[in-house]
Design a protein that fits this description.
Blueprint: H1 3-8, E1 10-16, E2 19-25, E3 34-37, E4 52-55, H2 66-76
Antiparallel strand pairs: 1-2, 3-4
């Protein structure tokens, strides 16, 4: 996902064994979040269809353009300054 999709939410297409399906990404989705696509995985030996798991990876843009840097600094005012304290150890 790009930064905007993760922040604002989006509907994206995800490839599966049977073709692409739409996955709704809620606003504020973090990198590493795992979504389950029920019944979209491979079949077991008994013929039962498993689930497919989709792990989110957020790609952060990089630019030295003046407007981009200004906008990112504006956004940083809304960020939690102690975000690392929420990481599970």
């Amino acid at each position: 996902l790009n930064f905007s999709e993760a922040s604002l939410g989006a509907t994206i297409e995800v490839p599966t064994i049977d073709g692409k399906v739409k996955l709704k990404i809620p606003p504020g989705t973090d990198s590493g979040k795992i979504f389950r696509l029920k019944g979209k995985g491979i079949k077991s030996r008994r013929g039962v269809r498993g689930d497919q798991f989709v792990k989110v990876r957020i790609i952060v843009p990089s630019s030295n353009e003046e407007n981009f840097v200004r906008i990112v600094k504006e956004i940083s005012r809304w960020e939690d300054g102690n975000i690392r304290s929420k990481i599970k150890k």
